Amino acid sequence: MIDLICRFVDKIEKCFLNLFENIGLKKFVKFYLLHKGIMRYLVFGGFTTLINIIIFYLFKKIFYYSTTISNVIAWFMAVLFAYFTNKFFVFYSQTSKIIEILKEMSRFFSARIFTLIFETVFLNIFIDYYNFNSIIMKIISNIIVIILNFVLSKLYIFKEKGN
User: Fold this and answer.
1) What are 72-112's pLDDT values in tens digits?
2) Which of 145, 120, 122 is nearest to 48 (CA)?
């Protein structure tokens, strides 16, 4: 099943790259292929961020949960998505034994807990204390978190893998 999903993602990526090439973005395609790992991280990081922001919005503005509870729920759902996309599509982790997967997942979640703490403090300060716009602050914090998460993933979680 995973192999089928990986081939599907590869085909979608190829379609987009062909489209970009056909509309005159050959330099972008060349750059993308040269830096495929980081580019895929940015693409899937964008999807992860979107999931994070949408879930945060739903719990904060629709269900009226606190900033912290909304952020933790959004974080958990986004990190779960991010683990699988990073494992299979960005860093190409080959772990297959359950104990290896659990160790890898544990490192991934523990690194993300660090950025969750940063983000929660950031949001509480700027939303609850200074009354800044919650969605704008969520977007700004996510930009910082994406950078931190890439560095942690590259150096700590998937360090023996990658491209």
Assistant:
1) 999 999 999 999 999 999 988 888 899 999 999 999 999 89
2) 145
Alpha carbon distance 61, 32 (integer Å): 37
Counting Cβ atoms within 10 Å, is residue 58 exposed (0-12), middle (13-18) or buried (19+)?
Answer: middle
The set of residues, in sequence order, having a beta carbon less than 8 Å from that of 147 and lying 6+ positions away, is: none
Q: Beta-carbon neighbour count of residue 149 at 10 Å?
A: 23
Whole-structure pTM value: 0.80
**How far is residue 135's CA from residue 53's CA, in Å, rounded to a whole number?**
7
φ/ψ (deg, to 5) at 25: -105, 45
User: In whole angstroms, what is the distance from residue 121 CA to residue 117 CA?
Assistant: 6
The answer to whether 100 and 161 have CB atoms below 8 angstroms apart is: no
Alpha-carbon span 158 to 94, nearest angstrom:
10
Q: Which residues of 102-122 are buried (b: 16+ CB within 10 A; e: fewer)?
A: eebbebbbebbeebbeebbeb
